[in-house]
Amino acid sequence: MLFPTVVFAIFFAVVYAGRWALRGHPRALKWFLLAASYVFYGWWDARFVLLLVASSVVNHAAALWVAKSADPKLRRWVLIGAVALNLGTLGFFKYYGFLFVNVARLSAALGLPCPLPALEIILPVGISFFTFQALSYVMDVYRGVILPAEGLVDFALYLAFFPQLVAGPIVRASVLLPQLSQPGVPTRETAAVAMVWIFSGLFKKVVVANWLGVQVVDPVYDNPELFGRWDACLALYGYAVQLYCDFSAYSDIAIGVARLLGFEFPVNFNAPYWAASVQEFWRRWHVSLSTWLRDYLYVPMGGSRGTERRTAWNLIATFVLGGLWHGAGWNFVVWGLLHGVYLTVERRIYRARGGAVKATAAMPLWMRALARLVTFHLVVFTYVFFRARTFADAGWLLGALGRAAPSQCWHPMLPWVWLAGFGLQALDGVRVERVASLWARWHPVVQGIVAAVVITVIFALGPQGVAPFIYFQF
Amino acid sequence: MEPIPTCPATRATKPPRAVHLAVAVGYLGLLILNGVQLERAAERLEYGPRRDLACAMARPFATLTRALHAHGLRDRVAAWAQKVGLSVRS
């Protein structure tokens, strides 16, 4: 079920009515929201609801075992078992095809038969997201950061809660579980913020991301050998804004929808292309993933506590694995590797100058503007590997930058759509509240009428048909 | 461990009647402004009970939309988007 569709609008109306009708009945409310979340997930493929249920049962049982056991060895083994099971499931569904192709190629090169059977595996939507949530839950219980959920229904709802189920944000158990026991109530002000988030998300996805994808990015990336430098540039910069608008749109709508139901999600994007360093970029882009990788991968590996070489290794390994999390392909490995190398080099440069990367905030204005420009272009370069289907395509696209040819993709609306998408970063994070404060002053009837008009205009402006969100494939 | 940035608190004691009203009016407005579009979308579904149900549900709103000439907003914006090249098939 996609957010910007009629089906979701009907689904949300039912869930909204049910949520507030059951506000005095917490147990019934949890069951209702859980059932709604399974309907939302099962809309794609009902079979995978069983996977969600199985993941809920296994991880909750593991967390209870870890919490109740006094034997540190046993606790550790249960944790290892739970982590292995989660990663094994993720690996089977997401990485088996990748493993098979690479083993088959290697076997063929060595003149041996492929030892792995060829399987056609359907990737369950959002498996990377809910697996990471399950992992963080078990690890947090093990570390004593949180207590296990009050019951299986609580944990199952935490894992499957529909606004964030398929494309994040990756909400920690410590953030969502307490809210499931005691959901909040949106005030006029906070509901106004939710509405602005939903409008912003719809505009980003329906108008900007879809248009840039259809008009510029898809044609060039699908056949990069047919285009010259101007179109390659349009595709490079176009994809940067398309990806931001597509992914942050999902987070914006998810946060807004959850808030209208009385739940708070962490902010997932905070004007990422205004970052003045790659480190800052990762504090602003997909914050819930970057903090997850930091807390459950980078820090346990030693973080920056060891030597410079060890820190570099930890950074690069974290980002290579982060790249693989995005997709089973060498292009994602290269994308992650580039970010790891950027961070390592950046760290060394700042260290050599006797400061920390965080010091970009204290830079003079011109230097900060230059740092922003450089960071943006470093990030845009990595997207070539993120978006291209193969290394050959990536090579063609980079090669196209040197080929003189008239533009085939230029459109008079392109700068406006691009600037609109880029400029919408101004609404990220808590800045949205300034806009929403105006909205909150209006009478609810006026708010409703304006909301209907705004959403209608967004859909009338957008392309016909809604493409799936890019991050669904992750 | 640095805290993850979170949204500001939404705790309140008052029943969110104003929020319910805004959401209800918003939905009603959407149905009135998009009734014709909903009917067209329902008609594009494959023949079967799902299509019949969708058409039956959309028809009253389409009638209301036509009676109020409320489809003009969407039609005009869509025509402008078509003219400037914003409307492409996704």
Structure description:
The complex is a heterodimer of chains A (474) and B (90). By secondary structure, chain A is mainly alpha-helical. Helix content of chain A is 70%, strand content 0%. The radius of gyration of chain A is 23 Å and the shape is globular. The two termini of chain A are 16 Å apart. The model of chain A has no long low-confidence stretch (mean pLDDT 88). By secondary structure, chain B is mostly helical. Chain B has one domain (19-82). Chain B is 67% helix and 0% strand. Chain B contains 3 helices and no strands. In chain B, helix 1 (17-43) packs across helix 2. The longest helix of chain B has 27 residues, at 17-43. Chains A and B meet through helix 1, helix 9, helix 10, helix 12 and helix 19 of A and helix 1 and helix 3 of B.
Regions with little confidence, pLDDT below 50 for 5+ residues of chain B:
1-15
- Radius of gyration of chain B from CA coordinates: 19 Å
The rough form of chain A would be described as globular
The helix/strand series of chain A, from N terminus to C terminus, equals HHHHHHHHHHHHHHHHHHH
- Describe the sheet with the most strands of chain B: none
Oligomer designation: heterodimer
- The computed structural class of chain A is mainly alpha
Order of SSEs of chain B, N→C? HHH
Outline of the structure:
The complex is a heterodimer of chains A (474) and B (90). By secondary structure, chain A is mainly alpha-helical.
Descriptive key words:
heterodimer, A: 474 residues, mainly alpha, 2 domains, 19 helices, 70% helix, B: 90 residues, 3 helices, 67% helix, 0% strand, disordered N terminus
Write the layout of secondary structure elements.
The complex is a heterodimer of chains A (474) and B (90).
Chain A: H1 6-21, H2 26-42, H3 47-68, H4 72-110, H5 127-143, H6 152-160, H7 162-165, H8 173-181, H9 188-222, H10 229-260, H11 278-284, H12 287-298, H13 308-326, H14 330-352, H15 365-387, H16 391-400, H17 414-423, H18 432-440, H19 444-461
Helix pairs in contact in A: 1-2, 2-6, 3-4, 3-5, 3-6, 4-5, 6-8, 9-10, 9-17, 9-18, 9-19, 10-15, 12-13, 13-14, 14-15
Chain B: H1 17-43, H2 49-68, H3 72-84
Helix pairs in contact in B: 1-2
